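Hi R.,

As promised on Friday, here is the backbone we talked about, encoded as structure tokens. Could you run it through your design pipeline when you get a chance and send me back a sequence?
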């Protein structure tokens, strides 16, 4: 009997918080070492963004706890959307009709990978404001490499790289995923600009100068 195809379980808030890059003891140690700051709203650091035309903007305060909470909300909402999308996809008997749902799941998996990286500090990701994180994700989606990005990762939050074959019946060629049906599968740029896809936040803006 074949094993049922399922998504990984949606994390609880508690299990998600265990992945935070900074816990209370870390935050207080950084404050004591003057690496971060504190006011009546809580602990914070400064966001510095290189603007393409006006140089360095006046830095904004990025409060640590609200930033974590915003990322948690974004992660959990995508997991819930993935659960609903996956259930709807698997209810379709003809696998060739599952493509739109599969594309959405791949995009959600792609977004979740980078949300988790920003949340946990995996891959050396800097601590960014929530706004910077979402801009970075949109930047990455704009290069149309969601499928390649998921396949290249050893593991992802939704494990979609491993679920493609059982969901659609066979491993499809990359050309199957070159489509305008879903954001993240078509590029807004020329192919020679693809190197920007892996650049850290802000570096693609520097190129505009």
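Update: got your reply. Pasting your designed sequence below so it's all in one thread:
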């Amino acid at each position: 009997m074949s094993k049922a195809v399922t998504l990984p379980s949606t994390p609880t808030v508690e299990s998600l918080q265990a992945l935070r890059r900074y816990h209370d003891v870390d935050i207080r140690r950084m404050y004591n070492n003057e690496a971060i700051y504190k006011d009546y709203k809580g602990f914070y650091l400064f966001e510095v963004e290189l603007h393409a035309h006006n140089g360095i903007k006046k830095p904004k305060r990025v409060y640590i706890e609200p930033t974590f909470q915003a990322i948690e909300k974004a992660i959990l909402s995508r997991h819930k959307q993935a659960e609903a999308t996956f259930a709807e996809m698997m209810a379709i008997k003809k696998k060739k009709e599952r493509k739109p749902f599969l594309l959405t799941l791949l995009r959600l998996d792609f977004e979740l990978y980078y949300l988790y990286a920003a949340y946990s500090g995996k891959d050396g990701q800097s601590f960014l404001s929530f706004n910077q994180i979402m801009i970075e994700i949109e930047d990455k989606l704009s290069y149309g490499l969601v499928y390649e990005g998921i396949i290249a990762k050893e593991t992802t939050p939704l494990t979609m790289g491993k679920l493609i074959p059982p969901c659609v019946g066979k491993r499809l060629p990359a050309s199957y995923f070159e489509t305008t049906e879903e954001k993240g599968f078509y590029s807004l740029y020329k192919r020679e600009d693809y190197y920007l896809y892996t650049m850290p936040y802000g570096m693609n803006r520097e190129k505009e100068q």
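One thing I noticed while checking it: Residues 64-206 form one domain.

Thanks again,
M.
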